[in-house]
Amino acid sequence: MADFYQNGIVTTLHNLENRSVEALESELNEFAKKRPLGLILPSLFSELEGKALPATIDHIAKVPYLNEVVIGLDRATKEQYQYALKFFSHLPQQHRVLWNDGPRLQALDEELRKLGLAPKELGKGRNVWYCMGFVLASNRVESVALHDCDILTYDRSLLARLIYPVANPQFNYEFCKGFYARVADGKINGRVSRLLVTPLLRALKHTLGQNDYLEFMDSFRYPLAGEFSFRRDVLNDIRIPSDWGLEIGVLSEMHRNYSHNRLCQSDIADAYDHKHQDLSLNNDQGGLSKMSIDITKALFRKLATQGTVFNTETFRTIKATYFRIALDFIETYHNDAVMNGLKLDIHSEEKAVELFAKNIMKAGTSFLDNPMETPFIPSWNRVVSAKPDVLECLLRAVEEDHKEFLGQ
Asked: From what superkingdom does this record's organism come (predicted)?
């Protein structure tokens, strides 16, 4: 049972009564008559062969209020794309699969690259960006949710609670961030959020002083959750990172573009588990190690745009302050786990904190060495300005792929 406490400066919508999914969907059906609703699913082909996504699609097939489902498919051959078309074919909703590795979308990507407007890195950010473009191009929905495809505990109530705040015409929210407790198999998970992001935000407050952005970011209960929902207009202006800083980058864009009362977070699940990344102690180009560097750089970049001046001494102070705060958090999480009959390995927690502390310095050094680094993908408004027919080209490429390969 959740409490009703409002922390920070972003509205929190709680799960106070465990309201039935049928009751939520009944209202969403009515909302969808005036404000059509959609869903974006960024996926790797490998996820089609896993345990999570097939079960997720079975749930989504029962969702009555969706007008469109847009699936972004990465790392797929032609045969795998054809398999994906069949895999998603039992969805009763209007749906399309973006074959991101196919020749038509690759040709469009090359056109944008020549204009300096294509995503620079492969990954979830690029996948999500093209899916957002397709939502704009198809013009079928007014509000859209986005969630990952590796959720092992998926239930369609998650989607209902995620999209409800931007679907209800009596609410004025432009954006909703999902949150949940990362507890599974008798353990507390979510190491990067618990042991990096929250203590780093607190360390930045101590080091740099209070500012609106840090207060905003620290208001989110699970800032790294991959579940969002938006009003359609948001998709035109948002600039998202193509690296592991995606979730932090999206929140930063919401802070830049909208007042706090247009944003909210919603409790979307009692239980949540998905695939876990390796800590990658000896490889800062993979796993949670690379993730921690990219996330930290995303925070530094945002603060720099607000006038914060960084140097090596600043980063050393931030790192030292972070380290002390993070170690204190380990004791807090351990006591919370013990009281709830859960396990928490203090040794592995401290190893993670030590790695993250080192990576704060690596992120700071990279930030100073590459001051012109711009991992952001351009907004769709900018792309349309440079290539006015880009959305029509994107829509045509996806539809032609669908028509050519669906029956083969």
From this structure: Bacteria
